Task: inverse folding
């Protein structure tokens, strides 16, 4: 009788020990690989480059131009990374790669070009082209406005918005005779703009979106 009681107690102790070592139902187990940052990248590096301070989102039709400021990031090879300004000849200069034509390309096209050029020096280069400042896309306004001259065209901008950026019309401006001058296909074209009609919400189609190189003349 005593032997039977000891056997039963021993079985209870073993069962309790087994239960204590088992995970609770529904509990998630994590493996060292899932917790390790290196599991996301075979070389222990982040899967993407860090964000660049001051980066802007260029317009959809944006092409790199002279005086634009770019940040080129080879995120596995920092020595090749640099902040550059597109020179008047349309080129940029980078360590090792030297001169590369950038003007007239989209950021993605330049990225692919740089990655191909960098293959001469590093294995599987990962390049990123970040637009930091757009200076090549400009519109102009002249005449009877608060402040005439060039203005950067960094996003969709209408004639009315440009006039506001220029400080508005002067008292003696001919509001009905404003003209937008543009070159299309190598030929000059013009569009009339009646300020009074537009601000009165009449013929709003006159308030066109400006394109790089447009000049608004306020007589």
Result:
């Amino acid at each position: 009788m005593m032997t039977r009681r000891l056997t039963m107690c021993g079985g209870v102790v073993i069962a309790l020990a087994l239960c204590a070592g088992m995970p609770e139902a529904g509990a998630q187990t994590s493996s060292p690989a899932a917790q390790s940052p290196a599991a996301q990248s075979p070389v222990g590096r982040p899967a993407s480059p860090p964000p660049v301070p001051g980066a802007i989102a260029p317009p959809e039709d944006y092409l790199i131009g002279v005086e634009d400021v770019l940040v080129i990031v080879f995120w596995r090879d920092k020595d090749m990374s640099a902040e550059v300004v597109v020179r008047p000849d349309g080129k940029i200069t980078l360590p090792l790669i030297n001169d590369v034509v950038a003007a007239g390309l989209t950021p993605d096209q330049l990225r692919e070009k740089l990655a191909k050029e960098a293959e001469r020096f590093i294995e599987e280069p990962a390049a990123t082209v970040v637009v930091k400042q757009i200076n090549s896309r400009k519109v102009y306004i002249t005449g009877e406005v608060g402040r005439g001259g060039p203005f950067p065209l960094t996003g969709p901008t209408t004639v009315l918005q440009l006039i506001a950026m220029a400080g508005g019309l002067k008292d003696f401006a001919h509001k009905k005779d404003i003209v937008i001058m543009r070159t299309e296909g190598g030929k000059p074209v013009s569009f009339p703009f009646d300020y009074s009609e537009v601000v009165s919400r009449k013929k709003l189609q006159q308030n066109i979106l400006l394109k790089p190189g447009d000049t608004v003349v306020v007589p």
Observations:
- The domain at 69-133 is CATH 3.30.1950.10 (wza like fold).
